[in-house]
Amino acid sequence: MRTCIASCSVASLLLLQCANAAFAGSGRPSSSSCFVKQGRTSQTVVRAGTAESATEAFTPPDARSAVPGIHETEVQPSRNPIGPNSSVLVVGGTRGIGLEFVRQCAQRGASVAATHRDGSIPEALLQLIKACEDDNIGAVSGLQMDVADESSIQNAAMELKSREDFKPLTHIIHSAGTYLKGTTFDGSSRGGRPPAPPVTKDIMMDTLLINAVGPLMVAQSFVPIMGSSPEATDDQLPILAVLTSKVGSIHDNGSGGTYAYRASKSALNNICKSLSVDLMGEISVVLIHPGYVRTDMTGGNGLIDVDESVSGMLRAVESTDRTVGFRFVDYKAELIPW
Predict the structure, then answer these.
(1) What Gene3D superfamilies does UniProt report for this protein, alphabetically (predicted)?
(2) Does residue 222 belong to any structural domain of this protein?
(3) The CATH number of the domain where 292 resides is what?
């Protein structure tokens, strides 16, 4: 089985080693029974053939930044807040980062549809749906969709629109993605990285399908059913927020390798730039990077917890409106170089 992970940050090895030792094992409980922290989990969202795929904040252990340090930070006033009149689609909302997006959006009172790849709703999402019903907070539902299957995406959009309680989507948060094993040029040690399986054509194509083509197909099917909430101002356009990765930054690539994942995230960034141009005046588009998050997939290592990452990314989402241009920003409000 291919182990798959996505949405990763890039930092120097020394920084990660020190930070991991300092922060591993910490966590913070949430204050609401509907929003009890689920622990350090990954987010399984799609499969390509028999290859399990997931989204999760993860840093390849050999990834190093070519431009370490603090980047320019943007001011993030709440220009376009998520609230009771918001209708949110979280693509890949079954656990980990995606589930936390569902939880925090519901906590704001929004109606949230969370996609899941398999036919039945996963237990973690079911528990959240029930908890939100019990607490009378938000309205959460599941939506079956495979981001690697164009017909599945189209059917999901039609199914969502046909629901009796459907409201035009004010937000799409695309959290789904994949990281497949097979990252090196030829399997040998290069660029200071240890030996690892080489990248293959299948790994390249599967990764590009899920990480780059999938979000475009989702936009094509779901943007037509987006719309501003009734009380929105002219500047408060619907928002398409896509989780990408600092690994997709060409300027920041200081360690090489990770061919499929890097290429897919760079492609995703360019696709979203084109979407921001083509949909200008209709939809606001923002690329967000979650940071290096403590999860099961990272063995509990990382710099932040899932709730902190998602809180930061939602600040970036809520600071987005017509007056803010397309940008690539992380959970700390730092602008990432292309």
Answers:
(1) NAD(P)-binding Rossmann-like Domain (3.40.50.720)
(2) yes
(3) 3.40.50
Kindly write down the DSSP assignment for every residue of 173-240, as one continuous string: EE------S--BSSSS--TTPPP-PBP-HHHHHHHHIIIIIHHHHHHHHHGGGB---TT--TT---EE
Is the separation of the CB atoms in 58 and 298 below 8 Å? yes
The pLDDT tens digits of the residues spanning 194-252 come to: 899 999 999 999 999 999 999 999 999 999 999 999 899 999 999 999 999 999 999 99
| 171 Cβ contact partners less than 8 Å away, ≥ 6 residues apart | 82, 86, 87, 88, 89, 105, 110, 238, 239, 240, 241, 317
Per-residue model confidence as pLDDT tens digits over 92-134: 999 889 999 999 999 999 999 999 999 999 999 999 999 999 9
Distance (Å) of CA 241 to CA 21, 83, 90, 311: 32, 16, 10, 14
Residue 60 lies in a domain: yes
pLDDT at residue 216, as a whole number = 99
